[in-house]
From TrEMBL:
Domain of life: Bacteria
Biased composition (Low complexity): 71-98
Protein name: Uncharacterized protein
Entry keyword annotation includes Membrane: yes
Keyword set, alphabetical order: Membrane, Transmembrane, Transmembrane helix
Source organism phylogeny: Bacteria, Bacillati, Actinomycetota, Actinomycetes, Micromonosporales
Transmembrane segments: 9-29, 41-60
Region (Disordered): 70-112
Length: 157
């Protein structure tokens, strides 16, 4: 539970309380306006509590995500005791009908969400191109790349 009392989480808890209180207050204000005869306020009176519910839903989802993904002290101890055993054992990859199975999935632990790797891909332009201007420009860029301190006016071509 200490994970939920970091400065970032305290800010989230405060934001939850402020937003839910504000949204419910605005909903009550719209109910009072609707009771005074403003018919369109009935729609807003329903919307504001829905917004408050959404804030609570997102907060609860983030709390569950934080508690589930971070290892506890017993998980750390188990990982350190099992690490030497797995290092000496030969590596065998388990497979099923769909392909290799992740070892962390087999151990009952859910693998973390990872960001995709972005690979920069450049186009290969043939020097013998139909477009002579493009080839000349590519030679110019190659020269600039080879001479990082040079100015564009120093280009010999």
């Amino acid at each position: 539970m200490k994970r939920l009392w970091t400065p970032a989480w305290i800010a989230r808890h405060v934001a939850l309380v402020v937003l839910v209180t504000t949204f419910l207050g605005l909903g009550w204000w719209q109910v009072s306006r609707a009771a005074a005869g403003n018919a369109i306020s009935w729609g807003y009176a329903v919307e504001w509590p829905i917004f408050a519910g959404f804030v609570v839903f997102v907060w609860w989802r983030e709390v569950r995500h934080t508690l589930r993904d971070q290892p506890t002290a017993t998980d750390d101890a188990a990982a350190t005791t099992s690490a030497p055993e797995t290092a000496s054992a030969p590596e065998t990859a388990a497979t099923d009908e769909t392909g290799p199975v992740d070892a962390t999935a087999e151990a009952g632990r859910r693998p973390g969400i990872r960001r995709p790797v972005r690979v920069a891909r450049g186009t290969v332009v043939d020097e013998v191109s139909d477009n002579a201007d493009l080839a000349a420009y590519n030679r110019y860029l190659s020269w600039l790349n080879a001479n990082p301190g040079a100015k564009p006016g120093d280009y010999p071509g």
